[in-house]
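Workshop exercise sheet. Pairs work together: one partner reads the sequence aloud, the other fills in the structure field after running the prediction. Swap roles for the next sheet.
Pair: D.N. / O.F.
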Amino acid sequence: MENNIGITDRLVRIVAGIALAALGLASLGDLLGFGVTVGAALTLLGLVLVGTGLVRVCLLYRLLGVGTSGSR
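Structure field:
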C-alpha cells in the first residue's frame, strides 16, 4: 500500500495516540474514574492512532481520497 500520511500527521498521530492510550489505561486501572467502557475506547483509539502513524497508512484517508504525504 502507498503511504498517505505525511511527517507532521505521523508525529501528531503517534503523540496523540500515546496520550489517549495512557488515559485509557489509567481509566481502566480505575485511576481516573471514567469507567471501563470509556477507558477501553480511549485505549483502542490510541492504539489505532499509533498504529496508523507507524505504518503511515490510514484506511479512512484512502476511502476519502485524502493524503498528507505529498506523494499525490
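Discussion prompt: The chain has one domain: 7-64. What would you look at next?
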